[in-house]
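Hi support team,

I'm opening this ticket because the web form for multi-chain structure prediction keeps timing out on my end. I have pasted the exact lines I submitted so you can reproduce it. The total is 821 residues across two entries, so I didn't expect it to be a heavy job. Is there a limit I'm missing, or should I split the entries? Thanks in advance, R.K.
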Amino acid sequence: MTLTASDLCKSYGQTRAVDGVSVVLLPGQVHAIVGENGAGKSTTLRMLAGAERPDSGVMTLDGARYAPSSVIGAAALGVSLVYQEITINRSLSVAENIFIDRLRRFAGRLGLIDRRRMESAAQAILERIGAQISVSADTSRLNLGELKCIEIARALSTDPKILLLDESTAYLDHREVQAVLGVVNELKAQGMTVAFVSHHLDEVLAVADGLTILKDGRYVGTYRTAEIEPNEIHRRMVGRDLAKGIYPSRLAEDPSKPTRGPVVFEARNVAVGRELNGVSLDVHAGEILGLAGLKGAGAEALFAAICGDLPLGHGTMRLADVQFAPTSPTDAWRQGVAHLPGDRQNEGLIAEFSVLDNLVMVRPPRHGPFFDRPGAIAIAGDLVTQIGIKTQSIDASCRSLSGGNLQKVVIGKCLAVQPRLLLLNNPTRGVDIGARTEIYRIIRQKAAEGLAVILSSEDMPELIGMSDRLLVLRQGHVTHRIETAADATEHDIIGHMA
Amino acid sequence: MTSSTSGEKIRSSSSFELLKRAFPLAMLVLLVVIFSLSSPRFLTFGNLLIVLQQGTVLLVAALGMTFVIMAGSIDLSVGSIVALAALVTALTADRLGAAAIIPAIAVGAVAGSINGVLLAKGKVPSFIATMGAMVVYRGIVLLFTRGAPVSIEDEQFLNTYTERTLGIPNSVIIGLVLVVLAYVIINRTVFGREVRAIGGGERVAILTGIQVARVKISMYVLLGALCGIAGLLQGARAMAATAQLGEGLELDVIAAVVVGGTPLTGGVGSVVGTMLGVLIITLLSNGMNMTGVDPYLQNIVKGTVLVCAVFVTIDRKKIGIIK
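Hello R.K., no limit was hit. The queue was backed up. Here is the completed structure from your submission:
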């Protein structure tokens, strides 16, 4: 089957996520959609899969008009989607997960599920993709790569002609990625059309026949993988030479700025839970320390310990030369540690509340037991101007704000209490390029004013562009220390991550 | 700062919000109109005072429940705490007179703090913790009274809580003072904002450094203390504490708060709404009695009104998944 899409557009509020994108998927070929974070890759794929409706544009399937109203509608026409997030229910069996939406198909006598028939059907699909997973495996013990293969098996169980994979390897480690790419190759050999979204060029070059480049929601071009150099792909994805433009200059690069100050925070041999096993690091005032690592490599556990959310298992921490062992987030904030969580919606802010309510949530200005509203208005107004939060008013609900502005509110909430140490967990996840640039500017500006920052990010260019120094974490240990982040390469970092 | 399109959106959604917020008031007006058309005795000063008096116990407990529901929790033990407080009042009124309010508040606060600690420190879901507490507190009352009423005879006590000042029953005055107090706490204090933040997103509140456990225990103590006052007022009205006093009150209290527009999912809460909810529930009973609605039909009407009110006022967009 041939799936074509031309001139697709999709906006969320004021944000144009996708603006005039065209894609052609040819039978039996693997096609990649690539671009930076926020380039519109996932949105494009989700429109192809019926998960989102385009505002305008035309899609055809084998020449006939194609406008699926849902993923179920698309699946019925032979187009199946694998979501970016893992959607496996770990209390169900492998086979139940694969057929979760069609269990009725296996109803036997008395309407009970014919488990044997369902399991053999599941086994057949798993064998087809060459996945080494037994249908009787305990779902709760499988790793993320295996779960991803089950997701792919689920998508294949509707017998699609076209399979769409949304950043299927985003949360996987190196070995798990290889397993998934193996499945893609296997399917390609069987004549399946596969389209996938990725921001890892290595993966793309390993399996794709063709690729479409997007940048800031716009269509850049479609190329045959064999005909384009990796450097050229990268240049077209970023649109300028190596994306340096969006990152403010660092300490060492700007002679007018003072050099870094004294050590603000240090950790010695710190262990937390089972994730972090003995890490030592220090951060100076005025410096941004980058942490690279796969999910679960230890950065989140380290942050949880510093912000008082998890107890320190082992080791010592010092904040401004004083022993530091926060007993709760309240304690950590009180001592000057601000934390921007990675999950904006569930941990960063309360979307139903107003901009003002969120901005002064940590330490509301007060007169005795009473909330000092004029004081809060002054603080919030100041933050809105300083950070450039675009909102109708400080009393507007955060639900009316775009992703980038929401993240600016969370940053404002952190800065409102004038912290000594700022922990940033993926501060620009799902943030468009404009807001990103502003977020980078404010972070660097605060660092220049003496704030110590630890930045953990899955976005490699961001880590390299923003950090002064970089640490690479793997399985709870520091595997690599880079003293001058500006000289680091993605390749070098990834090599120590996986 | 932003373009006019998003401004339009905000304005139209807020007028929709306004419609929803006005719903409890509209319902109250509708009830008053219906009942005054069906019975000439309904819309009289005397009857309205009776309504207020009847509603005070419910009101006082519902004010406390507004905090708990606003934080996304629940308390099923309020009726039992009211009974416990009434018993303590009856046992101490002879010696303390009007000052029996002190032990009444104290026993309520202690009972509430046990609920709060079970939830915040023991991590027992509030529905279960307070369901257990409901049975236990009621059990204590039964064990102590063996089912027999304990009468209150102290003149000074009864005068203080049942007489009128300037024509208005003292109990109603106490209720109104507590309304103002609850309004100020919810809207003007940091504590009120913290309760709201816990209901709006508990994980956010924890990571923001709000002392969630302390706030939760405090709000249960507040609810318990208010139930203590409610128990005292109920005892004073009945001139006795009985083992059955306040039975089923928890359902009326929760209904009043929810009908008043405070959703069970938390994050939002309104004292004025709760007051309207209490009036609606009390008026409904009073009006149906006045107009001679079959007593066996009354529960059906009450339940239907509750579900209708929630059907209209609930914000489904905010909740997402409705369990």
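A quick check on our side: The first strand of chain B starts at residue 150 and ends at 151. Let us know if the file doesn't open in your viewer.
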